[in-house]
Amino acid sequence: MKYLDEYRDEALARKVLAEIKRTVTQPWVLMEVCGGQTNTIVKYGIDHLLPKEVELVHGPGCPVCVTSLEMIDKAHAIARRPGVIFCSFGDMLRVPGTEVDLLVLKSRGADVRVVYSPMDCLKIARANPEKRVVFFAIGFETTAPGNAMAVWQARQQGITNFSVLVSHVLVPPAIESILASPLNRVQGFLGPGHVCTVVGYEEYEPLAAKYRVPIVVTGFEPLDLLEGVLMTIQQLEAGTFEVRNQYPRVVKREGNPMARELVKKVFEVCDRKWRGVGLIPNSGYRLREELRDFDAERIFEVGEIDTQEPEICISGLVLQGVKKPHDCPAFGTLCTPEHPLGATMVSAEGACAAYYAYGRHLEAGKRLDAAGVS
Ligand code: SF4
Fold first, then answer.
1. Residue nearest to atom 6 of ligand 1 (CA)
2. From the CA of 304, how far away is ligand 1's center (Å)?
3. Ligand 1, closest atom to CA 315?
4. Which pLDDT does position 241 carry in this prediction?
5. What pLDDT score was predicted for residue 374?
6. Neighbours of 12 (CB within 10 A)
7. What pLDDT is recorded for position 226?
8. How far is ligand 1, taken at its centre, from the CA of residue 337, in Å?
């Protein structure tokens, strides 16, 4: 398999589906961890093609969705300050804070800019020495090396008007928090392919053994996901609980050692609050003490901020696989991509946004149109 189309081959997909049907003998609940995987599953209707015994629930792996409301409000407080150029990836601009979003702040005169890499911020900082340039450094282990590189380079180059608002989150503690919850229904995981590209999957092995759950590191194309489901079901049916790798064309057990080394030089592990979920111990990165001169939270003194989530939003339960978007009374009515109440309706990787984009709020005929199926 060398080309993208082959990972979407219908005949091969049917074969894997038939194998899943032959293998499964009892009900199983699996969680795909990544928002990118959720998007593919909903777009191709993979969850509807699986035998009724196999239920897929959607996990917390959408970085925009899990960035806490406190951190969004801190970003807004910094972006409002005179003399600040606030830089972010585009999908954070529409995430609602307690009052507004970054796009509204921009329309009111704040200097909010979309960048495609944190390294772009260093150019902006060099070109605007009289301004203070702040990058909103969010995401999982996947984006940490790029963000670490920007801080490291800023220090090497003596750029003092650049800082980062760090809200990194880590997947293994989130999986552990799901497994340890009394509400947990998940019996096997399709592990996060992109995260494991960076950090590998050694860290997942103790989790699989402790909670007796198979974890299959899985890619993002339809055939990747079907194979990931098959490999997980095979383990569940056989009573084995190991970490296996469906995505070896990208992921190695040890990950990317150079990227891991750089991240270790810049960040250290800390407790982190997840939107809708709450505080998860040891589930985030913050800057190391010796690099705190680049810490926007410290520079702009936005330590304590009170926030309020809309009461109706159940995105915390969606992110933990306890509920699905259509269980939310606001889904597709009060809450739409044009007027999102929660972060899972904003990002393309959010489960609520994926359900909406592929027409799961519509009746069958319109749903096929929304999915582009003729
Ligand atoms: S549909 Fe909107 S309000 Fe409901 S859980 Fe999703 S983001 Fe929250």
1. 352
2. 26
3. 5
4. 97
5. 42
6. 16
7. 98
8. 10
Residues with CB under 6 A from ligand 1: 312-315, 318, 325, 328, 330-331, 335, 341-342, 344-345, 352
Rg (CA), the chain: 21
**Ligand 1 pocket: which of 335, 336, 347, 356 to mutate (most atoms <8 Å of CB)?**
335
The residue among 147, 241, 259 whose CA lies nearest residue 200 is: 259
Distance CA 308, CA 282 (A): 24
Low-confidence residues of the chain: pLDDT under 50: 373-374
C-alpha 181 – ligand 1 centre gap (Å): 21
**What is the number of alpha carbons within 13 Å of residue 329 lying toward its C-beta?**
3
318 C-alpha to ligand 1 centroid (Å): 9
Residue type, 22: R
Predicted model pTM: 0.92
Going by C-alpha positions, the residue among 362, 359, 361 that lies closest to residue 370 is: 359
Surface-to-core class of residue 90, CB atoms within 10 Å of its CB (0-12 exposed, 13-18 middle, 19+ buried): exposed
Those residues with Cβ within 8 angstroms of residue 372's Cβ, 6 or more apart along the chain or in another chain: none
Q: How far is the CA of 97 from the centre of ligand 1 (A)?
A: 14
Report the pLDDT value the prediction gives residue 370, as an integer from 0 to 100: 59
Lay out the sheet containing 132-139: strands in order across: 111-114, 84-88, 132-139, 162-169, 278-287, 267-274
**CA contacts within 13 A on the Cβ side of 221:** 18
Q: For atom 8 of ligand 1, which residue has the closest CA?
A: 313
Q: Measuring CA to CA, which residue among 292, 296, 294, 268 is closest to residue 282? A: 268
Asked if residues 205 and 175 have their Cβ atoms less than 8 Å apart, the reply is: no
Atom 3 in ligand 1: which residue has the minimum CA distance?
313
For helices 171-180 and 204-211, the axis angle rounded to 10 degrees is: 10
Whole-number Å distance between alpha carbons of 142 and 138: 10
CA torsion through residues 111, 112, 115, 117, sign: positive
3-state helix, strand, coil in the chain (%, to 5): 45, 20, 35
Please give the Cα distance from 197 to 254 (Å, whole number): 9
